[in-house]
Design goal:
Number of helices: 19
Strand content: 5-15%
Distance between the termini: 32 Å
Helix content: 40-55%
Number of domains: 4
Length: about 500
């Protein structure tokens, strides 16, 4: 991280000093910076002249005292609060009264680090994402003591480095990591409840949600032990917030030493650094409706998207004798018709719908490449068969999972939206910053606020309330801002 940040400084035409007290680390850092500058020029990311001039701006410092004249010092020391506080104490003695001291921490409260500095108002968080030269986001964190001057200097430096800069208030996970927590947390919960398998959850996230990587693949990549420690840190800093409770599944994996890619086995086993799982296949070609009558009931974005896709696939909507009824909106549905029925499992499970013979489904707009289906012992075989055929004709893979409100993707996405609205409502960051942070910093397919608007906040609230009704767990309580948006229709910023 330190070498990557130094490379950004060199390319921003800033005189860049680099220090590391660990024997050999400074030389390795220098090699990394100079190699990165050269490779970037070879790949056309910047000119050879930029690389050469950047190379000339790098200066190695054997002693910490050589940083005395710096305008801003960014530490990228290991994530140990005691080590970082000790470093800020020493820098306060070495540097001038106006020097801004920035921490690249991703999990430690910046306010606790600022307290160790002689001038805590000069301390700010600058959370770069890994690898810094490639990731476009910088999260600037305002500690309780941070001055506007320090914030502005950090923001200006980030922009000079070519980053999209977002500003967050201090707190567990700051803004980006906090708003991304539900992907892992809810996936572990879905697995624990045996709603779906590891492979199914990841496939649904990739094909249904558009994520580049499934949550369990990502946990293996980062390290299950790292994720577990982050979860414990969130839990400790929040005094036991139920939404951030660590999972016993993580604890068991760590105890067993199966930590992911670095140990060759985690949620997956690894061969040549790749998870041992089937490759994703292209979805079926849409079409084949051939004038069959289908009734799609309900209002909202999902129902509208399904109607559009059904027309394109050649289905006739409505009619007096539909072969399948698809109820595509949250809410209770009563029917005594003999027509096979597929009902959306959003605000309630298929069992809670209590419609004998029906099949459950879930997907979200914008429609991805996969639909989740669920059945009960009394589900009619013709309802299951016709639902499979209908969604396949729309160009969607089918994935059969066990029954629950929101099934898999609904739970993950609605929890993402909910956490974002908790953070925005608490003043941690703005809606635009939340969406920029999760897309640029975490590579999500879209930001949670954008997703909430796409789905409809009413749909999100209905799913959370359905989970609360059936699970009675505090992790599913809705953010006050979400309830207010649904009740009043107010815009979010």
């Amino acid at each position: 991280m330190g070498a990557g940040i130094a490379q950004l400084g060199c390319l921003a035409r800033i005189e860049t000093l680099m220090h590391d007290p660990v024997p050999g680390a400074l030389e390795r850092g220098e090699k990394s910076v100079r190699s990165g500058l050269a490779k970037g020029a070879e790949r056309g990311r910047w000119s050879e002249e930029d690389a050469r001039e950047g190379d000339e701006r790098l200066r190695l410092c054997e002693q910490l005292e050589e940083l005395a004249d710096c305008d801003i010092v960014i530490e990228a020391a290991p994530e140990r609060p005691d080590l970082k506080r000790e470093l800020f104490e020493r820098l306060s003695e070495i540097c001038g009264d106006e020097t801004v001291l920035a921490s690249n921490t991703s999990s430690i409260l910046v306010s606790s680090l600022a307290a160790a500095a002689a001038h805590p108002e000069n301390v700010v968080g600058m959370h770069f994402f890994n690898p810094p030269p490639l990731m476009r986001l910088l999260e600037v964190i305002a500690a309780a003591q941070t001055s506007e001057r320090a914030l502005e200097m950090a923001r200006a430096l980030g922009e000079a480095m070519g980053k999209t800069v977002i500003v967050a208030s201090d707190g567990p996970g700051f803004l980006v990591n906090r708003c991304g927590r539900p992907v892992n947390g809810e996936s572990l919960r879905v697995l624990q409840e045996r709603v779906a398998t590891i492979e199914q959850i990841d496939r649904i996230a990739r094909l249904g949600g558009g994520f580049r990587m499934g949550p369990f693949e990502l946990m293996d990549l980062v390290g299950i032990d790292v994720g577990y420690e982050v979860a414990r840190s969130f839990n400790e800093q929040s005094f036991g917030e139920p939404r951030w409770k660590p999972s016993m599944l993580q604890a068991k994996m760590v105890a067993a030493g199966t930590l992911g890619r670095k140990t060759g086995r985690g949620w997956y086993s690894y061969e040549d650094g790749k998870p041992h799982r089937p490759d994703d296949e292209d979805p079926p070609e849409p079409g084949g409706g051939d004038g069959q009558q289908v009734a799609i009931t309900g209002e909202g974005a999902l129902a509208a998207a399904l109607r559009d896709r059904a027309r394109e696939a050649g289905f006739e909507l409505g009619g007096s004798n539909p072969e399948l009824i698809v109820h595509a909106a949250p809410g209770a549905l009563s029917t005594s018709r003999e027509t096979p029925l597929a009902v959306l499992c959003a605000d309630r499970s298929l069992a809670a719908h209590a419609i004998p013979g029906s099949v459950g489904f879930h997907l979200l707009p914008p429609l991805g490449k996969l639909v989740e289906l669920t059945r009960l012992p009394d589900t009619r075989a013709d309802a299951a068969e016709r639902a499979e055929g209908f969604f396949q004709a729309l160009g969607l893979h089918n994935e059969w999972v066990n029954d629950a409100p929101g099934l898999v993707l609904g739970r993950l996405v609605c929890q993402l939206v909910n956490e974002a609205l908790f953070a925005i409502g608490e003043g941690v960051g703005s809606a635009d910053d939340v969406d920029a942070g999760t897309t640029l910093g975490l590579n999500h397919p879209r930001g949670p606020v954008a997703w909430g608007r796409e789905i409809g906040f009413e749909h999100v609230l209905a799913t959370l309330d359905g989970l609360w009704e059936e699970r009675r767990e505090e992790r599913y309580r809705a953010a006050p801002l979400l309830r207010r948006i649904v009740a009043t229709g107010e815009s979010i910023s």
